[in-house]
Amino acid sequence: MADPITFSGSPLDRVSVERRDATWIETLRAAEATRFLPLFRLDPLVKLGDARALAWATNALFDGLDPAPPMVLLGMDGEVAHFAVDVSAIEDPMEAFGLKDAAAFEDLRAIAGQLTPGETSIAAQARSLVDWHARHPFCAVCGGKTVVEMAGAHRRCIECAAEHFPRTDPVAIAVIVRGDRCLLGRSPGWPAAMFSALAGFIEQGETLEEAVRREIYEESRIRVGKVRYLTSQPWPFPSSLMIGCIGEATTEEIEIDAAEIEEARWFHRDEVREALAGETSKLIVPPPFAVAHHLIRAWVEEGR
Ligand SMILES: [Zn+2]
Q: What's the CA-to-centroid distance between 38 and ligand 1, angstroms?
């Protein structure tokens, strides 16, 4: 697991305790050194050029905007505060901010591979958080209006005082193995020959291991015994945590659920090794950008 997991490894300190101080937050928002990452319809502003980089603005960019765009504190890099700003209410932010060809709002999924690992994590936090706030202007308990507290760490209803916290949805993703073979599947619409680890949302009242066994059985009718956790990945589309496992199959006969996947097959470790090395066109596995790649690679390397 040498390569960093995309969307993890933020250099920012989230200042969970200090952010309770609203006066301090206001000081940070007004400080010249403070950095703001604008997001338009969840796409972060990035610098164009040979490689993409997050395009941080100063508060001068938002001068005169009425109402002020919603902001959440991502964290501190030393003494410098970093906020995410939702500029989706501005009709043409490129025009409004006088941005030229050097920067653009771009889809995070498309550009994550070009950002540094730390930047992918900051952008993931910004995207998930801005999305959650935009979707929760009203209280799920009473329908009242909610307001931001603790610089974006949660919202509170002004009618019934209920607190609402940004959610992260856990997803179990697993490479299922049996001896020298592993079970991979493909979804409709994927590039030809692309197969990956099977995955599904963890449901209420089940463990990670139980979720893996249920999902794999639902999608392939393969029974899974021992399940071990390997690594995880934040997945900000909109707000999941992919929890990566390796599971041991106890059966071999595949019967797919066509409503969920298009195909599932057993692949020999040698075939998968070739696919990782890009030496075959018969099997394509996900790129290092995805946690499935790390799971598949870890299993192949265990067999050396
Ligand atoms: Zn309420």
A: 29
> CB within 8 A of 17, min separation 6: which ones?
none
Assign domain 18-128 to its CATH architecture: Alpha-Beta Complex (3.90)
Q: What is the mean pLDDT of residues 228-249?
A: 98
Tell me the CA–centroid distance for residue 94 and ligand 1, in Å: 36
The residues, any chain, with a CB within 8 Å of residue 247's CB and separated by 6 or more, are 174, 175, 176, 177, 212, 213, 216, 224, 225, 226, 227, 228
Euclidean distance between the first and final Cα of the chain, in Å?
Answer: 15
Q: How far is the CA of 147 from the centre of ligand 1 (A)?
A: 11
Task: Specify the pLDDT at position 231.
Answer: 97
Q: Could you tell me the residue ranges of all domains in the chain?
A: 18-128, 136-166, 169-302
Pairwise CA distance, residues 198 & 181, whole Å: 15
Q: Which two tokens stand for residue 85?
A: 């700003």
Contact 84, 126 (CB under 8 A): yes
DSSP string, 218-247: HHH---EEEEEEEEEEEETTTTEEEEEEEE
- For residue 143, report the distance from its CA to the centre of ligand 1, in Å: 6
Global model pTM greater than 0.85: yes
Fold classification of 169-302 (topology level): Nucleoside Triphosphate Pyrophosphohydrolase (3.90.79)
Q: Are 147 and 158 in contact (CB under 8 A)?
A: yes
Give the pLDDT score at 32.
96
* Residue-level pLDDT at 63: 86
* 144, 157 Cβ separation under 8 angstroms: yes
